[in-house]
Design a protein that fits this description.
The protein is 32% helix and 17% strand. The protein has helices at 26-37, 55-58, 89-102, 192-201, 228-234, 237-260, 263-288, 292-297, 380-387, 417-438, 447-459, 461-478, 507-510, 513-516, and strands at residues 17-22, 43-47, 109-111, 115-121, 126-131, 136-144, 149-152, 167-170, 184-188, 207-211, 218-220, 310-312, 324-327, 331-334, 338-341, 346-348, 351-354, 358-360, 372-373, 403-405, 442-445, 517-520. The protein contains 14 helices and 22 strands. The protein is α/β, with parallel strands linked by helices. Strands 1, 2, 3, 4, 5, 6, 19 and 20 form an eight-stranded mixed sheet that branches.
């Protein structure tokens, strides 16, 4: 140790910020709150939009609202007094903004900014972010909070969209200046957005044609405004805690059952439950939809968990209206006047709504090649395409020092989206806090910890059952596009549990950063890491599938 005494080490450049959070939606808010709660204040939240709340700014279409109960869409540290069982989008948007205001995040935000590329500088120990305006920003740590639903699919691959001369409306980017009253309208898609858009448009338009490629499970939505008792419950923190725990235990019970039962028994139980549900669903449709042809087309081919089931008020009833038509003939192309289907029929429309879904974080193709370059030239997009979706604790990988996802592969811990983002933010804050305590500037998950985690994910009985059910019995058999699986045949969304007492869902609270990360200092830094923690650990090859 004495051999370096008296030597002056050249000072290294310092980054402009300690941390950058990319995205100002729910994940970005959770990350900012957890950083501040850990005493980390030198950060900025970037977002291409003009305010906090992410998807709730992009999605302002008619009828937009939560499709989960309101108490499932709040941070555990910020319960809200919701007005309805399923809050409207404007109320959710205001809740997100309120949390951001109360936690001082507006003072640490920049809007109208897009990050195009991230490059790690290992010599100096920070990231350089290349922004869409040509400028750069440097930060010690990067927290990616762009969520699960990334970019909307502009036309779902339908040719000649540019030829259409009417009003083309995107569900994620509604033009409220356009008056569709009394017009002929088409909606392409029958997912969650369509379930809310269609019944909102139906009473206002002259004709509403809904183009369906895949039928979706649409369950009754028991939505109503809270009365005196409901408002009192909303003011009770204990009620919010109980609602959260009920959600946690209910979903946990399903996952634990899938893990503990033999694979054949679990699949047989799931198949039997779906058969009974399908009988009940047909009876439900018979009650709501009088047209037998439409009723038959609305029964999903796939199982209930092959994709995200939806809750709707009025969607199914639309096809009992004189002006509501369900069309299942595939679309061939757009025309100047409207849409031409493969049977040669062309229909003219004043407005066409694209409710065709999103590119999602379960697909390797959703991560552009060249967008993220880590240590030793690791390209995140290339890695995922070659090796599949993986991330330690759903948040990070070897050779991506000081960088985390708020939501990554196998990151869905089954509680609520808000609590998942909280837990990821907690994980990150704990690692940064440990690095600070050591005087280290670089934190990187060890290959051993990452590979052990990934093996646990892909070999878990729950994952095996999920993959057999989703990929083999749903996607391949019924040719349904599923958010829960990808083109590689993986099911990289849902996280196993390991039981109630040792749940991986609590990993962010229980893991030891000292065991799973390496910490090192930058040469020439005024701060020096612990001597035993300065070695760089090279990542091992990805775990075999």
């Amino acid at each position: 140790m004495g051999s370096n005494t008296g030597k002056r080490v050249p000072a290294t450049p310092l980054p402009e910020l300690e941390a950058v959070v990319v995205g100002a939606g729910v994940g970005g808010i959770a990350a900012g709150c957890q950083l501040r709660r850990a005493g980390i204040d030198d950060f900025v939240i970037l977002d291409r939009r003009g305010d906090f709340s992410g998807t709730w700014i992009a999605n302002t279409y008619p009828g937009v609202a939560l499709d989960v109960p309101s108490t499932s869409y709040e941070f555990t540290f910020a319960p809200n007094e919701w007005s309805r069982v399923f809050a409207p989008g404007a109320e959710v948007r205001e809740y997100c903004r309120r949390v951001a205001r109360e936690h001082g995040l507006y003072e640490r935000s920049r809007f109208g900014v897009s990050v195009e590329r991230e490059v790690w500088d290992d010599e100096n120990g920070f990231w350089t972010l290349y922004l869409d305006d040509g400028s750069t920003l440097t930060a010690r740590y990067v927290l990616n909070a762009t969520g699960f639903f990334l970019e909307p699919r502009s036309n779902s691959g339908i040719p000649d969209v540019e030829k259409y001369r009417g009003k083309l409306m995107l569900s994620a980017g509604w033009d409220h200046s356009y008056d569709y009253a009394g017009k002929r309208v088409a909606v392409i898609g029958t997912g969650a957005s369509s379930m809310q858009i269609v019944p909102s448009l139906a009473p206002e338009v002259a004709q509403l044609d809904v183009y369906q490629r895949t039928a979706t499970w649409c369950f009754p939505k028991p939505d109503f405004a809270f009365g005196r008792i409901g408002q009192a419950l909303m003011r009770s923190k204990r009620f919010h805690t109980l609602a959260y725990m009920a959600n946690w235990y209910a979903y946990q019970a399903i996952v634990v059952a899938a893990e503990r039962l033999p694979k054949r028994a679990a699949l047989a139980l799931l198949t039997g439950a779906e058969a009974a549900l399908r009988v009940a669903y047909r009876a439900y449709l018979r009650f709501l939809v009088k047209d037998s042809q439409a009723r038959a087309a609305l029964v999903p081919r796939h199982g209930i968990m092959a994709n995200m089931p939806t809750f709707g008020r009025g969607f199914l009833q639309t096809f009992g209206r004189e002006n509501g038509t369900l069309l299942t003939t595939p679309i061939e192309r757009f025309t100047e006047r409207g849409i031409r289907t493969t049977d040669g029929v062309e229909r003219a429309y004043d407005m066409i709504v694209l409710a065709t879904g999103f590119n999602v974080a379960s697909d390797p193709e959703s991560f552009p090649v060249g967008a993220v370059t880590g240590r030793d030239g690791l390209d995140l997009g290339e890695f995922y395409r070659a090796n599949g979706m993986q991330a330690y604790a759903g948040v990070t990988m070897p050779r991506l020092p000081n960088r985390w996802f708020l939501y990554g592969p196998y990151g869905w811990s089954g509680v609520t989206w808000m609590s998942m983002m909280e837990n990821s933010g907690l994980h990150i804050a704990r690692v940064i806090t440990e690095a600070r305590a050591r005087g280290a500037q670089i934190a990187e998950v060890t290959p051993a910890a990452h590979d052990a985690w990934h093996r646990a994910m892909i070999t878990s009985p729950f994952t095996v059952v999920a993959q057999e059910y989703l990929v083999e019995r749903q996607v391949k058999k019924h040719n349904v596009r599923s958010y829960f699986s990808n083109a590689r045949g993986e099911a990289p969304i849902l996280r196993p549990s390991r039981g109630f007492r040792n749940s991986l869902w609590d990993h962010s609270e229980t893991f030891d950063p000292r065991a799973d990360y390496t910490f090192r200092s930058v040469v020439g830094s005024a701060e020096v890491a612990d001597p035993g923690d300065t070695a760089v650990t090279e990542p091992a090859p990805a775990a075999a599938k």
